């Protein structure tokens, strides 16, 4: 049921037009993996669940912070209306890229380590789970790229020509999210040594 929930919530993400709803459903999808790992009750599964919970907590919070910075300037969360922000906020676009790559569990992020622990645990429990987790991972990559491209690429709407610049506090918030993720990526034993 947890794996079926991953497919359902990931598929819902592909249909979202609201940026915050997309991020929220993304979190539910990732927690499906955590739930499945906890139910299996193996040391690797618990390690993967703990790793992914901490990593996704930072990643999801960073995505919500980024969505808020967009909303404060454009006053809309509709993906079709907030295109082309890379031209106006190039540094914020870099934060979007790094956070989305982390959300997709791209190497060498700590999210990938957590997902690999969980996927290998589920595969050892039942080899047929590799199909569901594989499709879930593919859909996750698809909606993460969709979110990045819809918010950053394309031509900006003429109604958003005069946008207020980003503030140091907003960049500091994102540094405080991504720096711990980077530190955990370089030293994953801080989390993964809990159950093994």
From TrEMBL:
User: Which segments of the protein form a coiled coil according to its record?
Assistant: none
Q: Could you tell me the keywords of this UniProt record?
A: Electron transport, Membrane, Mitochondrion, NAD, Oxidoreductase, Respiratory chain, Translocase, Transmembrane, Transmembrane helix, Transport, Ubiquinone
Reaction it catalyzes: a ubiquinone + NADH + 5 H(+)(in) = a ubiquinol + NAD(+) + 4 H(+)(out)
Q: What does this protein do?
A: Core subunit of the mitochondrial membrane respiratory chain NADH dehydrogenase (Complex I) which catalyzes electron transfer from NADH through the respiratory chain, using ubiquinone as an electron acceptor. Essential for the catalytic activity and assembly of complex I. Core subunit of the mitochondrial membrane respiratory chain NADH dehydrogenase (Complex I) that is believed to belong to the minimal assembly required for catalysis. Complex I functions in the transfer of electrons from NADH to the respiratory chain. The immediate electron acceptor for the enzyme is believed to be ubiquinone.
Q: Where in the cell is it found?
A: Mitochondrion membrane
Instruction: Cite the InterPro entries for this sequence.
Output: NADH_UbQ_OxRdtase, ND/Mrp_TM
Q: Quote a single Gene Ontology cellular component term.
A: mitochondrial membrane
Keyword Coiled coil assigned: no
Its main subcellular localisation, reduced to a broad class, is mitochondrion
Pfam families, per database record: Proton_antipo_M
Q: Which residues cross the membrane?
A: 21-40, 46-67, 79-98, 130-151, 172-195
Give an example GO molecular function: NADH dehydrogenase (ubiquinone) activity
> What name does the UniProt record give this protein?
NADH-ubiquinone oxidoreductase chain 4
